[in-house]
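Narrative of accomplishments. A recurring question from our advisory board has been how the design workflow behaves on a single, concrete structure rather than in aggregate. To address it, we present the structure tokens for one chain from the evaluation set, followed by the sequence designed for it. No filtering or post-editing was applied between the two.
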């Protein structure tokens, strides 16, 4: 099972918060008229966001069944581009090769930016020697040819403490993004680390080893701040801590990233999928806040609404 403990807790807490927030707005008058499935798969990072949105949507639309799988961004696109899903969660943009598969299968889609994230590098709470790492130091640790096994090999001023590495597995969009911006090519990474699609394992591993280091989405750090220490990142303009503001204004370089859902043309022709996508955008601020992601800027919201409108027009959805 992938991330089930965290998913249930996050979805439940998000739904509780959102139910209170949305109750003041009144029930959706179109609720009773919608029915059928909304099938979603893909990024485990985006899953809690889509799961919370789905739970809330089903409260107003009792005959709609929203299901959210977590096969990773790449795994999600494999299903999406052959028409097995209506929506694909993604923690990175779709690749050209994936686009080609969609094209070959006559699947059109729109990319909807639904939240922001700040990939967070974390260390053990007992780590007193590092507060900031440069991109060059991260590359020295994570590049495919790296033989770094101790912190003093990263910087001579650091202690001779064994380096225990945890990170995303190769099917994860988080892995693709991190390796791309740190090592220069997506998928390029040393192999002798603890890869996982379950970020709770990274939390446990880093929290359990004084020399531990790992990376995952900002919301995971927020949930586990009592157990872990976030490292500031120097992308060339000084050390910057991961935060909502830094992710939105672009100063948290290069680990700030957008998060997406992809909606297919065949999906948006289904009334329940179309209304779910609209709900996702219309209530985005509250959903993103409850799920502890970084909200969209006004300009990003406008672009997302325009992308959905364009897909609906192309698909002939009403």
């Amino acid at each position: 099972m992938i991330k089930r403990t965290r998913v249930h807790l996050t979805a439940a807490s998000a739904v509780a918060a959102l139910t209170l927030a949305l109750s003041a707005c009144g029930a959706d008058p179109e609720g009773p008229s919608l029915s059928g499935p909304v099938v979603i798969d893909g990024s485990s990072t985006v899953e809690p966001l889509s799961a919370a949105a789905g739970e809330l949507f089903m409260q107003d639309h009792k005959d709609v069944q929203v299901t959210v799988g977590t096969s990773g961004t790449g795994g999600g696109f494999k299903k999406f581009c052959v028409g097995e899903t209506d929506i694909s969660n993604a923690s990175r943009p779709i690749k050209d090769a994936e686009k080609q598969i969609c094209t070959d299968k006559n699947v059109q889609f729109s990319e909807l930016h639904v939240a922001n994230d700040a990939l967070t590098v974390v260390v053990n709470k007992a780590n007193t020697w590092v507060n900031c790492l440069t991109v060059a130091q991260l590359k020295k640790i994570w590049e495919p040819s790296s033989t770094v096994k101790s912190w003093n090999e990263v910087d001579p001023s650091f202690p001779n403490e064994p380096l225990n590495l945890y990170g995303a597995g190769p099917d994860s969009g988080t892995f693709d993004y991190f390796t791309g911006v740190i090592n220069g090519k997506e998928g390029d990474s040393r192999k002798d680390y603890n890869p996982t699609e379950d970020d709770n394992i990274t939390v446990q591993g880093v929290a359990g080893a004084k020399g531990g280091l790992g990376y995952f989405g900002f919301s995971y750090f927020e949930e586990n701040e009592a157990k872990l220490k976030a490292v500031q990142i120097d992308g060339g303009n000084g050390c910057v801590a991961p935060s909502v503001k830094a992710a939105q204004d672009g100063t948290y370089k290069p680990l700030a990233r957008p998060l997406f859902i992809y909606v297919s043309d065949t999906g948006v022709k289904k009334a329940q999928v179309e209304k779910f996508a609209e709900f996702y955008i219309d209530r985005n601020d509250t959903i993103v806040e409850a799920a502890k992601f970084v909200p969209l800027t006004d300009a990003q919201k406008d672009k997302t609404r325009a992308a959905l409108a364009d897909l609906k027009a192309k698909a002939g959805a009403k």
